[in-house]
Design brief:
about 45% helix, about 20% strand, alpha/beta, 7 strands, Rossmann fold, single chain, binds S-adenosylmethionine
């Protein structure tokens, strides 16, 4: 599947570059390590909803943090278009039995109603076509199964809204150029956060596909949010 032809950024190339260039370290620096706490919170939430005997898919699985934290070793499926990300995950998740697939959310290579749970952390922002991605996720999810998203956003509170945007526009690309020698990729990451839909718009997009909205949990006034959806 050819992607991102009309975009000034080739998203797969970007993640190939950042996977080589200290991806995990950059995440730690960018979020002052807070992304680890958010991921732990997210995984605890997933554990409370998922039955370990059922199948779970992590979309945009990247370097494998979610399955690394999840206290489950079997029925794990991970999909990401960048095979180098899977290689990092394999090293991190040696004790886990993970079925890896190179591919896009918009074209999932799984049967319908296959998974009890589907997760996607910091990946939805990169979908070239969210409607296609969400439709595919809905198709592959079992009845009553959960789709859990975690994604960055722009804080709703005015006081932190502007400084946060300035952090994304200036500090993030600068840090990327120093630590990872890759200003361009980190400029893309910043722009993709700034242009991401508001929490309400995203939930409406998901409802239009057919999902029931269970809950949205905001951190730092929406700088990071968890969305819990269910296929009813
Ligand atoms: C910021 S990383 C997040 C990785 C991981 N989920 C985490 O929380 O650390 C975004 C990932 O999305 C992947 N990606 C980009 N476009 C995608 C698409 N259309 N479908 C699925 N994954 C995609 C990238 O290759 C990259 O690994």
């Amino acid at each position: 599947m050819s992607k991102n032809s009309s975009n000034q950024y080739n998203i797969t190339d970007i993640f190939e570059n950042v996977s080589h260039a200290k991806y995990d370290l950059m995440n730690d620096i960018m979020s002052l390590g807070i992304h680890r706490l958010w991921k732990k919170y997210f995984v605890d939430l997933v554990s409370s909803k998922h039955n370990a005997n059922e199948k779970i898919l992590d979309i945009a699985s990247g370097s494998g943090d979610i399955f690394n934290l999840l206290p489950i070793t079997k029925n794990l499926y991970a999909i990401d278009p960048v095979s180098e990300m899977h290689n990092i995950s394999r090293k991190k998740n040696k004790s886990k039995n993970i079925n890896y697939q190179v591919g896009y959310a918009e074209n999932l290579p799984y049967r319908k109603n296959f998974f009890q749970t589907i997760t996607c952390t910091y990946g939805v922002r990169n979908f070239e076509n969210r409607k296609d991605g969400f439709s595919e996720i809905y198709r592959c999810l079992k009845q009553n199964g959960y789709f859990l998203i975690m994604e960055f956003g722009i804080p709703k509170r005015d006081l932190i809204n502007k400084p946060y945007k300035n952090f994304l526009k200036y500090v993030l690309p600068f840090t990327g150029s120093i630590v990872a020698h890759d200003r361009h990729s980190y400029k893309y990451l910043a722009e993709s956060i700034i242009s991401f839909p508001s929490q309400i718009s995203l939930v409406n997009e998901l409802k239009n596909i057919g999902f029931s909205h269970v809950k949205t949990i905001d951190f730092i006034s929406g700088a990071n949010s968890i969305y819990i959806l269910q296929k009813k």
